[in-house]
Amino acid sequence: MARIKDITAVRGMRANQLVGYGLVTGLKGTGDSLRNAPFTEQSVNSMLDRLGVNIRGLGARTRNIAAVMVTAELPPFAVGGNRIDINVTSLGDATSLAGGTLLMTPLQAPDTEIYAVAQGSVTISGFEAKGQNEVLTHGVPTAGRIPSGALVERDGPGIPRGTRDLYLDLKNPDFTTAMAIVDAINRYGGTHFKRRLARESGPSAVAVEIPSGLSASRFLAEIGVLDVNVDAPARVIVDERTGTIVINRHVKVSRVAVTHGNLTVRITETPSVSQAQPFSKGKTVVTNETTVSAGQDTGSFALVEGVDLQTLVSGLNQMGLKPPGIIAILQAIKSAGALQADLVVQ
């Protein structure tokens, strides 16, 4: 069971990406080298010119400033005066943004309009300690974050005034889930308004009608808390890079016999020294003795039959396999037509 507002989003009511270019000051010698980052020097000169200070041609070589890109996400229904979090990343050759302060930076949307202005102290989670022979780095010291670091100056998109029809887009499209949402909203409409208020629009959306005399905000608040049964297609997700396997509860496996054995080839190089005899005018050389051995683990057949998720997982665990082996078996079972699910390999 899940609430409608947790599995759907109102069409058009989405977040918007913002981006800006700014300067971080107050760094302890870890900023951009102005000679290698000319855009930083140009930005500093332009900023000081606007403040009535002219340093052009003086060859400033400070390393307390870094050019950065600032990104943020403007949430739906944001209004002027709200604050949003921002991310700050270095653009030049700065080594750390620790202790820096972001100067006032306008944030633009793709329509080139300024929707927020960012400023504040940068917080980073990484650090770098350097010595003559060793460098210790934890995290990324050239990327940081400023919680509530941007002030919204322009209202974000909201529900259009006067509209009486809305679309609820499913975050995970599915016919069964869409029909469950339609039935739940229509039960609500039949109880309170004696009429049907929703209709399906394919597996990815539900069209709803706002009753007269009720605002869109109140209507969405009331139907958003309705519980529905969420369904999803049977699917197995495999990430071969990390060995992660995710199997949802609808996956079934037809009765199949599986065996898995690993072939291991080991090559060993043993260096040996050949020493020349005294007064023989020979040379001492190093030779390698190579030993090659091969072995294969014994593989026994095991019956795997997935009546439910617990049975399938237990059957795979009984074979004593590691994730790479389970991934290979799942791919083979899918090829054999016994895996009744979509196999997604990432």
**How far is it from the N-terminal to the C-terminal residue, by CA?**
28 Å
How many domain modules?
4
Sheet with most strands: strand arrangement: 3-4-5-10-7-6
String of helices and strands: EHEEHEEEEEEEEHEEHEEEEEEEHHEE
Q: Let me know the number of strands.
A: 22
**Multimerization status:** single chain
Low-confidence stretches: none
Counting H and I runs of at least 4 residues, what is the number of helices?
A: 6
Please bin the fraction of helical residues: 10-25%
Return the structural class: alpha+beta
Shape: flat
Using the CA coordinates, give the radius of gyration.
32 Å
Percentage of β-strand residues = 35-45%
Q: Major sheet: size, sense and barrel closure?
A: 6 strands, antiparallel, barrel
- Compute the average pLDDT: 81
Sum up the structure in keywords.
4 domains, four-stranded antiparallel sheet, 346 residues, alpha+beta, six-stranded antiparallel barrel, single chain, Alpha-Beta Plaits
Report on the structure:
By secondary structure, the chain is α+β, with helices and mostly antiparallel strands. It folds into four domains: 14-152, no CATH class; 160-228, Alpha-Beta Plaits; 235-261 and 299-345, no CATH class; 265-295, no CATH class. It contains six helices and 22 strands. A six-stranded antiparallel barrel has the order 3-4-5-10-7-6. Strands 2-11-13-12 form a four-stranded antiparallel β-sheet. A three-stranded mixed β-sheet has the order 16-15-22, covered by helices on one side. Strand 8 (127-130) and strand 9 (135-138) form a beta hairpin. It is flat, with a radius of gyration of 32 Å. It starts with a strand and ends with a strand.
